[in-house]
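Here is an idea for our session: we take a single protein and study its fold together. To get us started, please write out a protein record for me. Once you have written the record down, we can walk along the chain together.
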Amino acid sequence: MSSAAFKAAAGAAGIGGVTGGGILINNHLSNNRFTIKELISEHKTKVAITDAKCTSLLGEKVSGESDPKYREFLTGCTRDKKVGDLLKGFTLMPAGGDYEAKWKKRFTKYKQAKQGTTFPIKDVVLEDSDSENTEEHLKKLKDGCSNQWSKAVTGNEEQTYLDALKDWCSLEETKNDG
Protein backbone atom coordinates (compact mmCIF):
# COMPACT_ATOMS: atom_id res chain seq x y z
CA MET A 1 0.00 0.00 0.00
CA SER A 2 1.37 3.40 -0.90
CA SER A 3 2.16 5.88 1.81
CA ALA A 4 -0.55 8.26 0.58
CA ALA A 5 -3.17 5.48 0.50
CA PHE A 6 -2.17 4.40 4.02
CA LYS A 7 -2.48 7.96 5.33
CA ALA A 8 -5.90 8.35 3.70
CA ALA A 9 -7.10 5.04 5.19
CA ALA A 10 -5.72 5.94 8.61
CA GLY A 11 -7.37 9.36 8.44
CA ALA A 12 -10.73 7.82 7.52
CA ALA A 13 -10.41 5.33 10.37
CA GLY A 14 -9.56 8.18 12.73
CA ILE A 15 -12.60 10.17 11.67
CA GLY A 16 -14.75 7.08 11.97
CA GLY A 17 -13.32 6.45 15.43
CA VAL A 18 -13.97 10.01 16.52
CA THR A 19 -17.49 9.90 15.10
CA GLY A 20 -18.13 6.52 16.69
CA GLY A 21 -16.73 7.78 19.98
CA GLY A 22 -18.98 10.83 19.73
CA ILE A 23 -22.00 8.61 19.21
CA LEU A 24 -20.92 6.42 22.12
CA ILE A 25 -20.45 9.43 24.42
CA ASN A 26 -23.77 10.93 23.33
CA ASN A 27 -25.58 7.64 24.04
CA HIS A 28 -23.88 7.42 27.44
CA LEU A 29 -24.88 10.98 28.34
CA SER A 30 -28.49 10.52 27.27
CA ASN A 31 -28.68 7.32 29.33
CA ASN A 32 -27.56 9.29 32.40
CA ARG A 33 -30.59 11.58 32.20
CA PHE A 34 -33.38 11.30 34.74
CA THR A 35 -37.02 12.19 34.69
CA ILE A 36 -38.08 14.91 37.08
CA LYS A 37 -40.33 12.32 38.74
CA GLU A 38 -37.30 10.09 39.47
CA LEU A 39 -35.36 12.96 41.03
CA ILE A 40 -38.24 14.38 43.07
CA SER A 41 -39.10 10.94 44.48
CA GLU A 42 -35.60 10.80 46.02
CA HIS A 43 -35.92 14.29 47.54
CA LYS A 44 -36.28 14.08 51.32
CA THR A 45 -37.85 17.46 51.96
CA LYS A 46 -39.95 18.31 48.88
CA VAL A 47 -43.13 16.84 47.43
CA ALA A 48 -44.60 17.48 43.98
CA ILE A 49 -47.80 19.46 43.58
CA THR A 50 -50.26 17.41 41.55
CA ASP A 51 -51.96 19.98 39.36
CA ALA A 52 -52.19 19.38 35.59
CA LYS A 53 -49.23 21.60 34.65
CA CYS A 54 -46.87 20.09 37.21
CA THR A 55 -47.98 16.52 36.55
CA SER A 56 -47.24 16.96 32.85
CA LEU A 57 -43.66 18.02 33.66
CA LEU A 58 -42.86 14.92 35.75
CA GLY A 59 -41.86 12.93 32.64
CA GLU A 60 -39.39 15.58 31.41
CA LYS A 61 -35.78 14.37 31.13
CA VAL A 62 -33.15 16.39 33.01
CA SER A 63 -29.42 15.94 33.50
CA GLY A 64 -29.59 16.20 37.28
CA GLU A 65 -30.51 18.47 40.18
CA SER A 66 -28.63 21.43 38.69
CA ASP A 67 -30.56 21.24 35.40
CA PRO A 68 -32.50 24.51 34.87
CA LYS A 69 -35.70 22.57 34.06
CA TYR A 70 -35.46 20.71 37.38
CA ARG A 71 -34.69 23.93 39.33
CA GLU A 72 -37.73 25.57 37.71
CA PHE A 73 -39.87 22.55 38.66
CA LEU A 74 -38.69 22.82 42.29
CA THR A 75 -39.65 26.49 42.37
CA GLY A 76 -43.11 26.23 40.82
CA CYS A 77 -44.27 22.68 41.36
CA THR A 78 -43.18 21.56 44.82
CA ARG A 79 -43.92 22.36 48.42
CA ASP A 80 -42.09 21.46 51.60
CA LYS A 81 -42.82 17.92 52.65
CA LYS A 82 -44.69 17.79 55.96
CA VAL A 83 -44.29 15.11 58.63
CA GLY A 84 -47.88 14.05 57.84
CA ASP A 85 -46.71 13.18 54.29
CA LEU A 86 -44.43 10.55 55.84
CA LEU A 87 -47.37 8.95 57.66
CA LYS A 88 -48.92 7.23 54.64
CA GLY A 89 -52.27 5.64 55.44
CA PHE A 90 -52.80 7.80 58.54
CA THR A 91 -54.90 10.93 59.00
CA LEU A 92 -54.62 13.58 61.70
CA MET A 93 -57.60 13.25 64.03
CA PRO A 94 -59.86 16.33 63.83
CA ALA A 95 -59.75 18.51 66.94
CA GLY A 96 -63.48 18.75 67.54
CA GLY A 97 -66.82 17.23 66.78
CA ASP A 98 -67.38 13.53 67.30
CA TYR A 99 -63.80 12.88 68.39
CA GLU A 100 -63.86 14.49 71.83
CA ALA A 101 -64.21 11.17 73.71
CA LYS A 102 -61.34 9.67 71.72
CA TRP A 103 -59.12 12.68 72.47
CA LYS A 104 -59.93 12.46 76.19
CA LYS A 105 -59.06 8.76 76.32
CA ARG A 106 -55.77 9.37 74.52
CA PHE A 107 -55.02 12.34 76.79
CA THR A 108 -55.32 10.15 79.89
CA LYS A 109 -53.12 7.43 78.39
CA TYR A 110 -50.64 10.00 77.06
CA LYS A 111 -50.10 11.35 80.59
CA GLN A 112 -49.58 7.76 81.82
CA ALA A 113 -47.04 7.10 79.03
CA LYS A 114 -44.68 9.75 80.41
CA GLN A 115 -41.34 8.21 81.36
CA GLY A 116 -39.51 10.34 83.88
CA THR A 117 -39.78 13.80 82.37
CA THR A 118 -40.18 12.59 78.78
CA PHE A 119 -43.42 12.25 76.86
CA PRO A 120 -43.83 10.00 73.79
CA ILE A 121 -43.77 13.10 71.54
CA LYS A 122 -40.94 15.31 72.78
CA ASP A 123 -42.60 18.64 71.97
CA VAL A 124 -46.06 17.73 73.29
CA VAL A 125 -45.81 18.24 77.05
CA LEU A 126 -48.56 18.04 79.67
CA GLU A 127 -48.41 19.06 83.31
CA ASP A 128 -49.13 16.53 86.06
CA SER A 129 -52.11 18.66 87.10
CA ASP A 130 -53.59 18.79 83.56
CA SER A 131 -56.97 17.13 83.15
CA GLU A 132 -58.72 15.69 80.12
CA ASN A 133 -61.89 17.43 81.33
CA THR A 134 -60.37 20.90 80.95
CA GLU A 135 -60.53 22.10 77.34
CA GLU A 136 -57.40 24.25 77.74
CA HIS A 137 -55.43 21.17 78.85
CA LEU A 138 -56.91 18.87 76.21
CA LYS A 139 -56.00 21.50 73.62
CA LYS A 140 -52.30 20.97 74.45
CA LEU A 141 -52.47 17.45 73.02
CA LYS A 142 -54.70 18.42 70.07
CA ASP A 143 -52.62 21.45 69.08
CA GLY A 144 -49.37 19.63 69.77
CA CYS A 145 -50.41 16.83 67.44
CA SER A 146 -51.51 19.28 64.76
CA ASN A 147 -48.25 21.24 64.97
CA GLN A 148 -46.11 18.10 64.76
CA TRP A 149 -48.17 16.68 61.87
CA SER A 150 -47.75 19.96 59.92
CA LYS A 151 -44.06 20.42 60.68
CA ALA A 152 -41.65 20.58 57.71
CA VAL A 153 -39.61 17.42 57.17
CA THR A 154 -35.90 17.70 57.89
CA GLY A 155 -34.96 14.27 56.55
CA ASN A 156 -33.80 13.17 60.01
CA GLU A 157 -37.11 12.04 61.49
CA GLU A 158 -36.75 8.89 63.58
CA GLN A 159 -39.18 6.02 63.24
CA THR A 160 -40.05 6.16 66.96
CA TYR A 161 -41.19 9.77 66.51
CA LEU A 162 -43.32 8.86 63.49
CA ASP A 163 -44.81 5.87 65.32
CA ALA A 164 -45.67 8.08 68.31
CA LEU A 165 -47.52 10.50 66.03
CA LYS A 166 -49.50 7.62 64.56
CA ASP A 167 -50.31 6.24 68.03
CA TRP A 168 -51.35 9.50 69.70
CA CYS A 169 -52.53 11.80 66.91
CA SER A 170 -54.07 9.74 64.12
CA LEU A 171 -57.73 9.23 63.42
CA GLU A 172 -57.11 5.52 62.84
CA GLU A 173 -57.67 3.06 65.69
CA THR A 174 -54.51 2.57 67.76
CA LYS A 175 -53.40 0.69 70.86
CA ASN A 176 -54.32 3.82 72.85
CA ASP A 177 -58.01 3.54 72.05
CA GLY A 178 -58.66 0.30 73.91
